[in-house]
Amino acid sequence: MFSSIRRSISRKFMVAVMATTFTAVFVSGLANLAYDINDFRTSVLEELGAQADILSQVSTAALEFEDRPSAETTLGRLGARPNVHAAAIYRADGSLFVSYAAAGQPQALSPPSRPSAAGHIIDGDKLHIFRPILRAGEKVGTIYLRSAYPLDERIERGLKMFAAALAVSLVVAALAAGWLQRAVTMPVKAMTRAVRELVKQRDFSQRVSKTTEDETGMLVDAFNSMLSEIGRHAARLEQSNASLTHEIAQRARIEQALNELNASLEQRIAARSLELEKANEQLHQSQKMEAIGQLTGGVAHDFNNVLQVVGGNLQLLGMTLPDDAAAQRRLETARFATERGAKLASQLLSFARRQPLQPTPTDLGRVLRDMDDMLRRALGESVEVESAVSGGLWNTMVDPNQLENVILNLAINARDAMQGSGKLTLELGNAMLDDHYAAREPEVVAGQYVMLAISDTGCGMPPEVVARAFEPFFTTKREGEGTGLGLSMAFGFVKQSSGHIKIYSEPDSGTTIKIYLPRSHQAEEQQFNMGVGEVVGGSETVLVVEDDLAVQGTAVDMLTQLGYRVLRADNGDAAVAILHEQPRIDMLFTDVVMPGKVRSPELARIARTVHPSIAVLYTSGYTRNAIVHGGRLDPGVELISKPYRADDLARKIRHVFANARQVEQLRHDRAQPAPPASHTGDGLRLLVVEDDPDNRLLLQELLGMLGHRVTAVASGEDGLAAFQPGQFDALVTDIQLPGISGIVLAETLRKMEPGLKVVVASGAGQAPVAASGKPYLSLAKPYQVEQMDALLRGALERGAAATA
User: Fold this and answer.
1) Where is the Histidine kinase domain (predicted)?
2) Domain ranges of the chain
3) Left, alpha or beta for 83 (phi > 0: left; psi -120 to 50: alpha)?
4) Which of 9, 78, 129, 546 has its CA 20 to 30 A from that of 27?
5) Mean pLDDT for the chain?
6) Torsion angles phi and psi, residue 594, rounded to 5
7) CATH class for domain 665-803?
8) DSSP letter string over 485-506?
9) Phi/psi of residue 751, each to 5°?
10) Residue 48 dihedral angles phi and psi, to the nearest 5°
């Protein structure tokens, strides 16, 4: 349908003329053919019927007299008519009288044995006719004739004539249509082309040429006039359209700009709202943690003061009753309770992220192996413990002692969740937290971590419990079964260690706690226990500054028992007055957190100004940020945390005094005449690690005067960073350092360079033997620089001779 619509008018005209001619000729040809067939049939019947009538008249007498020869002669004359193939005469009763068959006709086509009642029968290409023989109106017999009936030939001839006539008619029609097409459709085509060009080029100046003066010519004139009028209107419309288009374009640009601004504004508002919401949530959490931290810090401070009083007096009482076994047992029970209280305070500080940590490169696989027996004893035989450590496990930067507490607490929580029976799985592996994960988790930095997973087969936790699991004092246990600080302590410790902790749990499906600790590229460092060594006292003068009078009294009693002359002050202002009144004070032993205008760091500065050789030792159950930053003590600061034992206090005081005397010794050495020049030609390359700034500066200067090349740093971590194999001849280090100890530093550097000479300086007696079996060169503070120089040169000369 659509293809006929799209045809051109000339083609439509041609098709219409040809279709009309074809239809007319076809109908007329069919009608003529039908008429010819009917006329042929009629003429054949009339001709054969007339022949039958003649034969019936001629054969009447022969039939009446049974004159067969006469009848056969009559029928034989039909041989002159080739179209008659057979003939017969029948009696009145229908019996065959005589018959005739033309020469060459098959026997099967002989006349029928009896006549038919029908007047004629057309059988394909044969015509059968029966006519009665009458005499005086009475039937005496029947004449039969069979003739050829070539209707098919007649039809074939008619069709050929019809096809020829149809072809001629179509040719004539095509010629006529072509002429009419040129006469009628050419102007229409010209107008069509003009319209197409008009649409394509918008050129209304085009005109169609007129070829005739008839109606078509009038149509062309009207079309040209219409083009002219449309051109004028189009010019006005284009002008209006240009103005309207310009206005629409400006409006569209304005609307687009507004839409873009609105979309951008909505996106910015949504993003800003989300950022504000997250920031508000983080601020709320930060404020909450800060408030809890202040609360727990204050509680820990006061609690540790109480524990210090109780624990100190228990130790003093134990020394006064050495022979009373029953009293010693009760005192031991009380001391155990005091240690539990100290552990609780430590957990509070750990949750608040205010616990001074000593992170070192640590192999968590070793930590788990060392804890295996302890975990099995703590969990009982009914809990199966399984550990899985991945190959190629990285080291991590963590405080191993605090991590052991975290693992033990989590394991005990798992045991309680399993009601004492089940399976605990500890899994270690390397992990990578990508940017996508870090974006979804607050306070998580993308990077490489060591993952510790602790899984149990216990009762699990519903989502609402998981959401609050890290809150302090939140617990689902019955009263008396737990403090609710285990997970809180783990959370605070992991966060303070720059790590990440996550809980995965479902009711009746167990719980998995995953801890991610940052990877360390440094080798593992073995910790050295400074809690062992000789306990000695002294006769120096110590100023104790403590606002809690009970704690103050306990500290004074401990120091008095150790032989020290003790002065006391309740606050910083009173301590300043005592510093100015007393001619000699050897040590300032002060609490970090004190009331009044003078804070502890300022008090220490004043004390060093009034008494330049004074030693300073801090104590506190909660350090805040006065002397601890980033979880570590500031360089040169000495601290003993509450509650402390008398033995720990004794060792710590001797170490601090040794450092102070060492500073004085170095100042004295510097004031002496310069060492002989012979030492300057073969100086040693020394790495000096000393946290006391005065001691470090003087030691560096004096060793330099002896001709040595000195690199001095304030901590073990700085020493590791500065050390390169082959660049130093010896290491000179203090034992007690704010981060990793001097012994751990020495062992680590000796692994990197086995032939490195090590001088260990200590104010608490002799240094321990090296774990590698190679002895340290040991000096007790205060030492003389010439003594150290001789010790180093002698050791190096002996080593060179042994090598030779």
Assistant:
1) 298-521
2) 59-149, 364-520, 541-659, 665-803
3) alpha
4) 9
5) 78
6) -140, 150
7) alpha beta
8) -HHHHHHHHHHHTT-EEEEEE-
9) -70, -35
10) -70, -35
Q: H or E element: which one contains 282?
A: helix 215-320
Residue 134, pLDDT above cutoff 70: yes
Indicate the residue type of 446: A
DSSP helix/strand/coil, 71: helix
Place 90 in a pLDDT band, splitting at 50, 70 and 90: confident
pLDDT tens digits along 561-570: 889 999 999 9
The CATH superfamily holding the domain 541-659 is Response regulator (3.40.50.2300)
Instruction: State how far the Cα of 686 lies from the Cα of 731, in Å rounded to an integer.
Output: 6
Cβ neighbourhood burial of 390 (10 Å; 0-12, 13-18, 19+): middle
Q: Other CB atoms closer than 10 Å to residue 465's CB: what's the count?
A: 15
Alpha-carbon dihedral of residues 189, 191, 196, 199, nearest 10 degrees? -170
Q: Beta strands of 117-267 (E only): which ranges?
A: 120-123, 126-135, 138-148
Residue 449 token pair: 């971590």
The tokens for 498 are 């720059």
Q: What is the DSSP string of 739-787?
A: SS-HHHHHHHHHHH-TT-EEEEEESSSSPPPPTTSPPPEEEESS--HHH
Query: CA Rg, the chain, in Å?
Result: 64
Residue with tokens 């060093």: 608
pTM above 0.70, yes or no: no
Residue 464 C-alpha from the chain's centroid: 26
Write down the pLDDT at residue 1.
44
Listed in sequence order, the residues at least 6 apart from 440 whose beta carbon sits closer than 8 Å to its beta carbon are: none
Q: What is the DSSP code string of 376-433? A: HHHH-TTEEEEEEE-TTPPEEEE-HHHHHHHHHHHHHHHHHHTTT-EEEEEEEEEEEE
The mean per-residue pLDDT over the stretch 452-477 comes to 81
The SS3 call for residue 681 is coil
Cα 737 to Cα 692: distance, rounded to the nearest angstrom? 9
Q: Report the b/e string of 176-199 with b at 16+ CB within 10 A.
A: ebeeebeebbebbebbeebeeebe
What torsion, rounded to 10 degrees, do the Cα atoms 660, 662, 667, 668 define? Answer: 120
370-390 pLDDT per residue, tens = 888 888 887 888 889 998 888
CA distance 305 to 620: 8
For residues 190 and 208, is the Cβ–Cβ distance under 8 A?
yes
Fold for 364-520, please state it.
Heat Shock Protein 90 (3.30.565)
> Which residue reads 């009693």 in tokens?
557
> 3-state SS string over 334-392?
HHHHHHHHHHHHHHHHHHCCCCCCCCEEECHHHHHHHHHHHHHHHHCCCEEEEEEECCC
- Band (pLDDT 50/70/90 cuts) for residue 210 is low
State the DSSP code for 471.
S
CATH of segment(s) 59-149: 3.30.450.20
The reply to whether domains 541-659 and 665-803 share a CATH topology is yes
How many angstroms separate the CA atoms of 508 and 459, rounded? 5
Kindly tell me the burial class for residue 213, based on how many C-beta atoms sit within 10 Å of its own C-beta (0-12, 13-18, 19 or more): exposed
Q: What is the pLDDT of residues 602-614, one digit of tens each?
A: 898 899 899 988 9
pLDDT score recorded for residue 528:
43
- Residue 305 is predicted with a pLDDT of 65
**Terminal-residue alpha carbon distance, the chain:** 114
Cα gap 538→561, rounded to integer Å: 10
* C-alpha span between 126 and 107 (Å, rounded): 15
List b or e across 490-509, with b for residues whose CB sees 16 or more CB atoms inside 10 angstroms: bbbbbbbbbbbbebebeeee
Q: Are 568 and 591 in contact (CB under 8 A)?
A: no
Q: Which is it for strands 360-362 and 395-398: parallel, antiparallel or unpaired?
A: antiparallel
